[in-house]
Structures are given as C-alpha cells and as structure tokens.
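Hi R.,

Here's the chain you asked about this morning:
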Amino acid sequence: MKLVFILVHVLACIALILIVLLQKGKGASMGAAFGGTSQTIFGSTGAAPFLSKLTAAAAIIFMFTSLILALLFGKGPASVMKGVSGPAPETTQTESAPPPVPENK
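And the predicted structure, written out as tokens:
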C-alpha cells in the first residue's frame, strides 16, 4: 500500500514539473504581434485553461499523497526533550547572609 502511494506521489511530482514547464509566460503572446505563430492547436484560447486545470489537479494529488505518506511513515509523537532531566530542585537556605555593604573611602 505504501509503495502505491510512493509511486503516485513520484508521478504527481514529475507531472507537476512538466505541466508547469509547458505553460507559457505572461509575455509570450507578444511574439504573435510581430509575425509569430498563433496557438490554434488547443482552440482560440490556447492551452491555458486546460493546463491550469491540469496543474490544479496535479497539485491536489501531490498534496494528498504528501499528507498520506506523512501519516503512514510518521513515527508518532516524538519529543525533542527525550532524555533531558527536569529542572534541579531548588535548595532552601536556612541561614541567609546579609548583603555586603560597600565601603566609603
């Protein structure tokens, strides 16, 4: 079961990287004004809506598998204070000495 979640997680990671790299930047449409090619493969709006939905789906799968893997491989409650002893008991002084008096010269 753990192996299945690891494989899905790795595939989601690779897919997320590739999908983000396939998307064009905000200034990429400026090339079309100067004789560049238009993006008519995915329709008049291009691939932006499809790739953004695919990115959201891959991100949701990635977060879900990350949570599941953290729960499966977690070691339970762990403390950073393990092996540290508590505070030393306070000692009470039966006789307290008066504070030193400064000398005047």
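The CA atoms of residues 15 and 21 lie 10 Å apart.

Let me know if you need anything else.
M.
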